[in-house]
Structures are given as C-alpha cells and as structure tokens.
Amino acid sequence: MTAQDPGTPFSAGDGPAPDDVLRVEHVSKRFGAVTALRDINLHLRRGEVLALLGDNGAGKSTLMKIICGFQQPDRGRILVNGQEVTLKSVEHARSLGIDIVYQDLALIPGLSVYHNMFLNREKVRWPLLNNREMRRVAREHLDEMGVNIPSVSVNVAQLSGGQRQSIAVARAVFENAKVLLLDEPLAAMGVKEGAMILDLVRDLKRRGDVSVIIIAHNYGQVFDICDRVNLVQQGEITFDKPSSETSVEELTNLVVQEYRKALEERQRSA
Amino acid sequence: MSDTAESGGTVLSRAGAGGGGGGNGNNGGQPVVRALGVFARQREATVLVVTVALLLYFGITHNSTFVSETNAADLLSEIMAPIAIIAIGEVLLLICGEIDLSVGFIYTLAPFVTLFAINDYHVPALVAVLLGLLTGVVAGWVNGFITITLGVPSFITTIGTGFIMSGIALTISHAEPSPSPPIALGVGKWLGVPGNPWQWAPVTWAVVLVVIFHLVLTRTRWGLYTISAGGNLLGAREAGINVGRIKYGNFMITGFMGALVGLQTAFYTNNVDPSAGGYSPMFYAVIAAVIGGTAMLGGSGTIFGAFLGAIVLATLTDGFDILGVSANPLGIIFGGAILVAMIANVQLARLRGAGRSI
User: Fold this and answer.
1) Do A205 and A79 fall within a single domain?
2) Do A92 and A6 have their domain in common?
3) In chain A, N or C terminus with fewer CB closer than 10 Å?
4) Cα B189 to Cα B184, B194, B248, distances in angstroms
5) Do A125 and A232 reside in the same domain of the chain?
C-alpha cells in the first residue's frame, strides 16, 4: 500500500483497503480566516495503534473533533469500515463505534465507578436502578480488561488520574468502541500512572478488535506502543511511517526544523 | 489535576475530592479505600451526631417543655418541616449546579392563588389547592426557562423572579393578610392544621418526601443525572444526558416544594399573609442543605443530610426560645452556631483528605 511508503502520506482515492477501519480523505476545515486543516488524509487499520503527533496548534485537536463527530469538515469525506459517513454528532460517531476519551472530561467525580461505566445506559428495575447487576457486570468487565480498581463502588473522585483514565477507556470499550481516540492520555500523569495506561493500550492491541489513535505532543512516551506515526504540521499530515522505521530523534528533528523555518519566515517578513 | 479538585476545598464534600487527587502515592490499596468509604459515610454522621446531641441537651435540660406534645408539634411541623421540604428542592438544585433564591416568594404567592381561586372564582377547594401547587411548578419552569434556555445565571434569575412574585403577591392582596378560606379546611387539614392528629401532617409530608427524594437522588436515573450535571457538565453532555431537562425538572420540583410549604403554613397559621415566606425560609433551607453535606459548587450532596440539617436548625430555633433567650440576641447565637457547624464540617473534611495521603 502507498501508505507504507516512508515519508509520504498515503494517496487517497485508490479505494478503501479492506482492513482500514477508518479513513479520512481530503478533509479541510477553516475557522474564519484560519485554516486549521488542509487536505488531510489519514487511515487506521484494524487493531492498529496510531500515534498522531504534532505541536500545539498543529491541527491535531481539530482533526480529532472531526473524527469524533464534534465538528463537521468543510470538505472531504470520512469512511468507516469502507462506508462513507457524515458524522452528525458525538453520539452518532459513538453509535458507529468511534469514541473519544478525554482525560478530565470523561467521568463524573461524584458517582461510583459502576455508575460511571453505565452512565446513560443504566440497568433499571423500575422504578429503581438495578445497582447489583451494574456492579456485577462492571466488575467483570474491568477484571477482563485488567483494570485494577479495588472496588467498583468507590466514587471516581477518590481514584487516581491513571485509574480514572483506565476506567474511561474501559467504558468506551464496554460501549463497543471500535475506534478509540485518546487525547493526551499521559498528560499530567506520573510514571506509574502512565505505565498503567500504556499497559491497557497494549492489552487492547493484543485483543486486536479495537483500533487506537493516540494524540500526544510528548511522543517519547507513546513511541513504544504505537505501530505507526503520523505527524501533523500546520494543518497537514507531513509524515507517515511505521514506528519501526523511524525514531524519536527523527521526529524531534522534523518538529525542530519546522519551528526554525517558521521563525526564519517570520523574521524575513518582519 | 488535584489542584482543580482542591479549588473547591472550601466546601466540605469537595475537600474530599481534592484528597483523592492528592492520594496518588498509595494508589488505593484495599484497606485505604475501605477507610475512604467509612469517611464518606461519616460526612452525614457528623450532622447526625450534632442532631442527637442537641436533641438530648434540650430534652434533658428542659425536659418538661421541650418534650411536650405541643412543643414537639411546633418544632417538627411548624419549624422543621418547611425547612426540610424546601431543602429537598435546594439540594437537588445545588447538586446540579443551580440555586433557587425565589422559592420563598413562591411560598408567598401560592396561597394567594388558592385563596383567590376560591373566593373570586368559586373553584372547588381541592382544585384550588392543586392550582396553588401548580403555581409553584410554573414558577419553577419560568426559573428554568430563563436560566437554561436564555442562559442567565440562576442566582440572578431567581432574584429577579423572586421580586416579581413578591410584587404580584403584594399587589393582588393590597398588602393585606386574610384568613384561609374556611371551605378549604377539609383539604387543608391534610396539609396540616393545629390540633391532633392533623398537626402532625406537615412533618409526615416532610418525612415522606424526604424518603421519596432520597431514593430519587440515590437510586434513580434522575438522581444520577442530577449529580452528573453538577459534577461534570461537559462529561454529562458527552454521555448524551439531556442536562437542560434535568435542571428544568429540579427547578420545577423546588417550585412545587415552595408552594406546598406556603400552603401548609397558610393553613397551619390560618393566615394567608403577603409578608410570609421571603428570603428567610430559602436561606434556612440552603443552610440545612450545606450543613447536611451538600456542596455549594455542585456535584454532591444528600437529602437525608439536609433533613438532619433542618432538624438542627429547628432545634436551635426552638431550643433557644425555650431557654428564654430573647429574640434580639438570638441571631448572634444562631449565626455563630451555623458558622461553628460549617467550620467543623470543612475542617473535618480537610483532615480526612490529609489522612488519606499519609
């Protein structure tokens, strides 16, 4: 596949490959005078972990918001399992199996772990909630995913950042997510906490039925677990390589080069 | 992250959340989390201890007067029940991140609707009482509409609607009180009138409503979504919860509670009074809620705790009356007691938070 060509984004329009669970083709997005994304192409294979790297303001977040249905692109199309879709809302994207996990947005601190797991899909034995059943299923699911929580009845407020993030990921998988977007999953997290998340992603990879896009600007941490790296710079994907064919040094050089170029341009125009 | 949680540390239950973030070091071993569970339950237990202590103190030192039936009915039906019933609504609103400062004026207005429906429009008494209650629900809807749909902070919305309702009540009554319509007493006794057994109606209503709404808050979707709306608005929306609907509903529940208390008081005192209600019952209810462990910033709270808070406030009011403290310095003692209770709450929560990360 063209996507394998080192250093060049895959060329769109050659028909969806059967193992691409998600494809973004020629997507552009402007906010007023600012072009956030210009002609973006991205693809994600089944069971793959893709790192989407780039500096702040490069367009990663806009791209993620479009993929998770929060914003609509001005141009271009999105294919899920080879089917062209118009993602109308976050709920719509979720119903198609695309789910985004934000670090702090995901969970309700005042509710127990199992109520969070079942939020808006509670089991009810009218007129009351069927807490026992929810506790049981939540426990089972977390055990199965290897998420280590002492009790599913504690409030999320009492858990550490890493535990919260793990629960948010587990909840997304529990809700049948097939494409999982992790937005800066390691930001503000200690080494042990970070390792917990990375283990969870590794586990997902082993299971193979969930594909993951990790958004990070500190790529050193996520480099080990991803299969492929895309670099976003000034609204374009400028780099697409399997992680085995690149290195943290190469990526750093690319980012620094771009920064120097921008600096020179600014000085020239001044 | 613990910083964001701790910024709410002035409020007792938020202080607990801050400690959670700070406790990263021990990653929640089994005994730690079990201890946390005990602490969480202790939050209500603190108010319970205060309640029992107060009741014992006044019960033992002023046995004959305090424990007498008339005083018990006064304390429970006339003082405690209104606070407890309005507090149910305020707890729900505070938890979902709103407040209703107008509920005391719904209390003022609702009995006049019932009164005029009977006197001027000859509506059957039961229907007139229901119209009075409906007034509260409609007022709550208006509060919801201005706050949620038009986007005005509820603190401002309800100050405005409060003034308007106060103005309406004063205008239609020409600022004159009037006795409850006699034909409504058949219905009114179910809401509470002096004398056995109907004097126990208000406290019965309070207990029944507290039990029902305690279950609503802890064991139904409505309760979970109320906590979600206040605890993490964006997260709740992300999960597909219709947050606006929850808030509208809680404003309407609060309006209903205000109207119910207004009608109860009108029947209990046989007086429909344009100077009844006002800010005072609302503030008592909010204080009961906060003493009982509800976070002013939303996201957590309990109705049972607010009920205990209402008992504490009623016992203080009634107890000092029996002690013979004159009405003038009562405010000093009362205000002091509230502050001491809150300081104890906040500091205990902070201690609990600190103990966690050791």
Assistant:
1) yes
2) yes
3) C
4) 9, 9, 31
5) no
Is B305 an interface residue toward A (CB < 8 Å)? no
- Residue B285 sits in which domain range? 49-324
Q: Is the dihedral of CA B326, B327, B332, B335 positive or negative?
A: positive
* Boundary residue ending a domain (A176, A192, A227): A176
Contact, A12 vs A79, CB < 8 A? no
Say whether both A28 and A54 belong to one domain: yes
* Co-location of A186 and A149 in the same domain: no
**Interface contact A150-B28, CB threshold 8 A:** yes
Separation between Cα atoms, residue A25 and residue A10, nearest integer Å: 10
Does the interface ipTM go beyond 0.90?
no
Substitution target in B216, B219, B224, B296 with the highest count of A β-carbons within 10 Å is B224
CATH number at residue B92: 1.10.3470.10
> What domain range includes position A37?
2-97+178-269
* Mean pLDDT per 10-residue interval, chain B, length 358 residues: 36 36 43 60 71 85 78 89 98 97 98 95 95 98 98 97 97 93 88 91 97 97 96 89 97 98 95 94 95 89 94 89 82 84 75 43
Question: Which residue from A120, A160, A190 is facing B239, i.e. has the nearest CB?
Answer: A120
Considering its fold, how many domains does chain B have in total? 1
Burial (CB count within 10 angstroms: exposed 0-12, middle 13-18, buried 19+), residue B216? buried
* Residues of chain B found within 8 Å of residue A119, distances taken between Cβ atoms: 224, 228, 236, 239, 241
DSSP secondary-structure letter at B178?
B
Over residues A125-144, the mean pLDDT reads: 94
Residue A213 has pLDDT above 60, yes or no: yes
- CB spacing of A120 vs B234 below 8 angstroms: no
| B10 to chain A, closest Cα gap in Å | 16
Q: Find, among B54, B30, B39, B102, the residue nearest to B349 by Cα.
A: B39
Which residue in the set B19, B220, B232 is minimally distant from A127, CB to CB?
B220
pLDDT of residue A244 exceeding 50, the answer is: yes
Question: pLDDT by residue (tens digit) across B306-337?
Answer: 999 999 999 988 888 888 888 788 888 888 88
Residues of B in contact with A133 (CB under 8 A): none
Q: Which three-class secondary structure state does DSSP give residue B252?
A: helix
- Is B39 within the bounds of a domain? no
> Mind listing the pLDDT tens digit for each residue in A16-32?
456 789 999 999 999 98
Number of Cβ within 10 Å of residue B273's Cβ equals 20
Boundary residue ending a domain (A149, A176, A203) = A176
Q: How many domains does chain A have?
A: 2
In a domain, B1, yes or no: no
| Residues A190 and A255 reside in one and the same domain | yes
Give the model's pLDDT for residue B209: 98
pLDDT digits (tens, 9 = 90+) for A154-190: 999 888 888 888 999 999 888 889 999 998 888 878 8
- Mutate which of B228, B234, B246, B296 to test chain A, going by most A C-beta atoms within 10 A? B228
d(CA A29, CA A6): 26
- Lookup: tokens for A251: 């990526």
Based on the domain organization, do A54 and A43 belong to the same domain? yes
Q: At A54, which CATH number?
A: 3.40.50.300
pTM, two decimal places: 0.83
Find where tokens 């707890």 sit. B91
Q: Are B318 and B327 in contact (CB under 8 A)?
A: no
Residue A191 has pLDDT above 70, yes or no: yes
Average pLDDT over residues A115-126: 92
Residue B339 lies in a domain: no
DSSP code at position B186: H
Count of A-B CB contacts under 8 Å: 106
Question: Looking at the domain assignment, is residue B217 inside a domain?
Answer: yes
